[in-house]
Amino acid sequence: MVNHNSSVPLYLQLAADLEEAIYNKEYNDGEKLPSENQLCKMYNVSRITVRQALSKMEQKNLVYSVHGKGTFVRLADMSQSLVKITSFQKTLEQKGLSGYTEIEEYSLKKIPDAIKSIFGVDNIARLCLVGYANDLPLVYYNSYMINILAAEMFPIAQLWEKEKRAFSTWDIYPEISIKKLHMEQKLTAVIADGNIAKILRISKGDPVMKMETHAYSNGDLVEYKIAYYRADKYAFTIKRELDRDVYDGSF
Questions:
Q1: How many helices (H) and strands (E) does the chain have?
Q2: Residues 150-188: pLDDT tens digits?
Q3: How many Å apart are CA 77 and CA 96, to the nearest integer?
Q4: Chain-centre distance of CA 24, in angstroms?
Q5: Per-residue pLDDT tens for 85-112?
Q6: What angle do CA 67, 74, 164 make, to 5 degrees?
Q7: Handedness of CA 101, 178, 91, 203 (dihedral sign)
Q8: Using alpha carbons only, what angle is made at residue 116 by residues 115 and 122, rounded to the nearest 5 degrees?
């Protein structure tokens, strides 16, 4: 609590008390803090004091605010192995987080010729998804796929969106006719353009990780996906061994 008779400014006392509550797991990663009005009543302080305290905590990277929704405990970094494909839902569960996915776009028109040439056919659909942990967007999936696949996948995506489920296209494959996939992936670091920055709620020019995936079934390309991950929240890991023909163990 705060001491109104202390020489320490009230907003610093409030920030320290909330920080301690976070460290003690009274508020978990991604959890929403009490509203400004609630904090005013809980600590018997003014709204200005509350806003100063929350601003101080944002500066220390402990919380983040979402316009119209409130202030949340900053999420721990998300890590995902490059050795195997992990679904978005499972990645969240491993961190003890809840989330959901929204459909950003679905279209059968205006598919770039360059994309059609990758598939070697003209009947291509585009399905774009945004994956959230609580109310913070973490990843933007931009998928191109053959129309037959899209016809099966899109209705499921619509249903799961309504059910507030966290998913990517990888989660949907077990539900449709295509069961086995072979994937080739490329990970690069890029900067966010205006559209990516808006979707992921970051600043234009901020770093993001770009994952390009070619997914094949029975040797045929069925999906080409470009995923953009927030670099301040996502990390990819891999275990590697030294080539003993090159390194003799001395460094």
A1: 8, 10
A2: 999 999 999 999 999 999 998 999 898 887 888 899 999
A3: 12
A4: 25
A5: 667 777 777 666 678 999 999 999 889 9
A6: 65
A7: negative
A8: 150
CA proximity to 49, closest of 21, 16, 10: 10
**CA 80, CA 237: separation in Å to the nearest integer?**
6
Say how far apart CA 130 and CA 121 lie, in whole Å: 27
Work out whether the CA dihedral 20, 25, 29, 30 comes out positive or negative: negative
Per 3-state DSSP, what percentage of the chain is helix, strand, and coil (rounded to 5)? 30, 30, 35
Contact between 18 and 38 under an 8 Å Cβ cutoff? The reply is no
The DSSP output letter for 205 is T
For residue 164, what are its two tokens? 């507030």
* Secondary structure letter of residue 32 according to DSSP: B
Task: Identify residue 27 by its one-letter amino acid code.
Answer: Y
Backbone conformation region of residue 25, classed left if phi is above 0, alpha if psi is from -120 to 50, else beta = left
Alpha helices, DSSP H, located in the chain:
10-23, 36-43, 47-59, 88-94, 113-119, 147-162, 169-172, 194-200
Q: What is the pTM of this model?
A: 0.69
Picking from 232, 248, 228, the residue whose alpha carbon sits closest to that of residue 128 is: 228
Cα angle 172, 177, 178 (rounded to 5 degrees) comes to: 70
Q: Residue 51 corresponds to which amino acid?
A: R
Q: Which residues of 184-209 are buried (b: 16+ CB within 10 A; e: fewer)?
A: eeeeeeeebeeebbebbebeeeeebb
User: What are the phi and psi torsion angles at 146 (to 5°)?
Assistant: -65, 150
